[in-house]
Structure formats: structure tokens, C-alpha cells
């Protein structure tokens, strides 16, 4: 059987696919494959290991209904029409768990960096702007005992909450569609309404899936409810916040600062005003980008492909119902 991989992935995943006897095609280009091209390529393969920004919508799925499985090398699946895949009997898997530590590290890094305007300070030095010492200049804010508010408390949010509690004794509040009792017991986290999350948090970190329900939930109204001293962190998906509203909230000092590992669109425009603000730190979507985590993600995706090749359920299938429907 043949598998198509839409990026070069760590060798640990390739070895698993080779050992299972799969014939592998890996895309090594540096530009996104068009939808038409992707359909043409997948029509010559039995399985698809999708990495990056491939749009797996109904049109793609209908044109590639022969696929025995699609393994995403990501935890997010907002670019995939899961109900359509289930209806067509195409199992789709993702890579949960393995990236929670690395992604929460990125959120933690951004919280600390924003609290001390770290990226802006670095840029200033590179622009020869390290001047006269003034005790009242370049001041940041401390995080000790401040309240961490998590929007979408799952695995990544829980890892972040543990770090913030251990480092800064931060009490944790959260808002989810439904309460997460396990996390409440583990972290002493308190479930609050969305409005309470906005008004009571000193740091808000976003870890929810992007869906119609959560798209741009952090907008003008939401930012206006937050504390003037609040830090906004998004390491989930750029579509969860409205970038124009965020920019205005920062310009008008409605909030203290923002740390973004995700933007809308990606890559962001080079002249985006957020890049020149002292209270903003931006990273290029590197949440899971460590050697160890990317190897684990490749292994998880490859294991899912091998299971699909063998006609077995993919261990990380997103919608288990697909197996009761069948092709
Ligand atoms: C994920 O795994 O969803 C990361 O954001 C990479 O896309």
C-alpha cells in the first residue's frame, strides 16, 4: 500500500511506515500544495499522513473516498470536516497528549516574556537603544499569586496550570463548554462563566479548539471586559481572537499585553502593528516544535497509518463512530 506525506517528517515516523512495508511519497516543496493537486496525489495513494495546512473539506473527502485513513500530525483538526469524513467512512486521527508539555511550555514562555516586555527589549538592543539607566523605565509586572484564567481546560491547559501554580502559586479559574472535574481535583481549578473568566483573570491563556462556536470569541467586547493589567495568551489557533480588536485593545491600553504563538492569517503580515508593540511577543506557531515532541508526533501519526493499513481501528481516531458506519 502507498502513503502520501505532505511534509518532510522526523525519521522516527518514516521508520515505522517503512517497517510496515508501506511505499512512501513525501512532499518536500516549500509552498502549500493546491487542493486540486492534493486530490490528484491522494488518488494515487491508499493513505494520507497530513502535516501542515491541508484543507480536508467535504469536496476533498468526496474526491478521495477511497482513502483507508487520514492521520493528522497535529492535535488540532479545525481544517477537517470530521462529520463528512465519518459519513464517508474515512477514519481521521490526530496526535493528542504527546504535545501537551511542549505547547504549554510555549504558553508559559509567552506569559513570562510579555510580563517583562522581553521581545521588545531584545529588539531595542539590536536597534542600539540600550541607554541611560532609569529606575522607573522598562518595568514589567510580576506573576506571583496572580490569577490564571484558562479558556478550554484540557490536557495542554492543565499542563500550563501546573507550571503556573508551581512557579508563581497562581490560582486557576477556567471556562469550558462543560466542567472538567478531573482537572478541578488535580489543580484546584474553579469553573467560572466566560464573563467571570474575563473580569477576574490576570492572565488569560487560550487552549480551546477552533470551531464555529469559538471563532473570534476574544473580540472587542471580550477585551473590554478584561482587566487593564491583564495578559492575553493564545497558543491554540489565531481564529479564536479577532486580531484587529486585539490590536486596538493593546493600543488603547485596555489590557497590559499579549503573547501569540498563533495569528490570523499565518504567516502574519511583516508590517502587522503587533510586531512593533513593546507589550506584545509573537512566535511563528512553534508550540510543539521541540525535537522530542515532533518525533513523538511523527510516531503517533505513523502508528495510526499502520493501523489503518492493517484494517484495524486507528488508536487516536477522532470520531470512533466512523467504525460503526463503515465504508
Ligand atoms: C497542532 O498540533 O494542532 C499544532 O498547533 C500544530 O498545528
Structure in a nutshell:
This protein is of the alpha/beta class. Helices cover 37% and strands 13% of the residues.
Class inferred from helices and paired strands: alpha/beta
Give the name of the CATH superfamily of the largest domain. NAD(P)-binding Rossmann-like Domain
**Which CATH first-tier class of the largest domain would you pick?**
Alpha Beta
Biggest β-sheet description: 7 strands, parallel
Query: Overall mean pLDDT score?
Result: 97
Note the overall shape.
globular
How many distinct folded domains? 2
- How are the strands ordered across the major sheet? 8-7-6-9-10-11-12
| Order of secondary-structure elements | EHEHEHEHEHHEHEHEHEHEHEEHH
Level-2 CATH architecture of the largest domain: 3-Layer(aba) Sandwich
* Strand residue percentage: 5-15%
Characterization of the model:
- The longest helix is centred in the last third of the chain and has 19 residues.
- The mean pLDDT is 97.
- It is globular and about 65 Å long.
- It has 13 helices and 12 strands.
- Helix content is 37%, strand content 13%.
- With 327 residues, it is of the alpha/beta class.
- 43% of the residues are buried.
- It folds into 2 domains: 132 residues, Rossmann fold, CATH 3.40.50; 183 residues, Rossmann fold.
- The strands form 2 sheets. A 7-stranded parallel β-sheet has the order 8-7-6-9-10-11-12, with helices on both faces. Strands 2-1-3-4-5 form a 5-stranded parallel β-sheet.
- The chain binds (2R)-2,3-dihydroxypropanoic acid.
